[in-house]
Design brief:
Helix content is about 25%, strand content about 25%. By secondary structure, the chain is an alpha/beta fold. The protein has a seven-stranded mixed β-sheet, with helices on both faces. The two termini are about 30 Å apart.
């Protein structure tokens, strides 16, 4: 697993052994960032100097990729000890200790935000329906900037995290399936 593009292109990222962490594959990250940069609602301004939040961060590959492509700061939420060790090693490898904040805590119970994020990555464990609960908690704690984008990775066969029949929810901007994963991008 490597950083795909930007200032740290080619940097190898560590990942813990075993099934507890499911890093987003390089080709899926490439497809995701292509969508973010080339969609009518996206572009380079989306990442330039952005504050990003990587929830259920694992190795931190999504947040680190955003930093490599121009984001100013990334906050990572992770609770697994092995994933935290890999995440911290990846931050050191990229030499982004000053640009990153690692919170070793449950993202469904976040502290108050020092500043809101304009781009959020949520890659929760599959089939646990954690996205609505997580987004509600992050919004209540001030982590979500007005008009922010949320990139959500779920299992391909999972229901959407937001059911349009249940009332006002974020707007689905794009959706792609990659193997067992589905990426959806939401305007909040």
């Amino acid at each position: 697993m490597r950083i795909i593009a930007g200032s740290r292109r080619g940097r190898v990222l560590a990942a813990p052994a075993g099934p507890a962490t499911r890093p987003t594959a390089d080709r899926v990250r490439q497809a995701l960032f292509d969508m973010l940069l080339h969609a009518p609602w996206g572009g380079h301004a989306l990442l330039a100097d952005a504050h990003v939040l990587d929830a259920f961060a694992g190795t931190g590959a999504l947040g680190l990729e955003a930093l490599s492509r121009g984001a100013a700061h990334a906050t990572f939420f992770e609770t697994d000890r092995m994933a935290l060790a890999a995440l911290r090693a990846n931050i050191r490898t990229c030499r982004w200790e000053q640009e990153c904040t690692v919170l070793a805590r449950d993202v469904t119970r976040p502290p108050q935000a020092p500043r809101p994020a304009s781009l959020l990555f949520l890659d929760p464990p599959y089939h646990k329906n954690l996205v609505p609960q997580t987004m509600t908690a992050l919004q209540a704690a001030g982590w979500v900037a007005p008009g922010a984008l949320a990139v959500v990775e779920t299992a391909r066969d999972e229901a959407h995290p937001y059911d349009p029949a249940e009332g006002a929810h974020p707007t689905l901007l794009a959706e792609r399936q990659h193997g067992a994963a589905r990426l959806s991008i939401w305007q909040l």
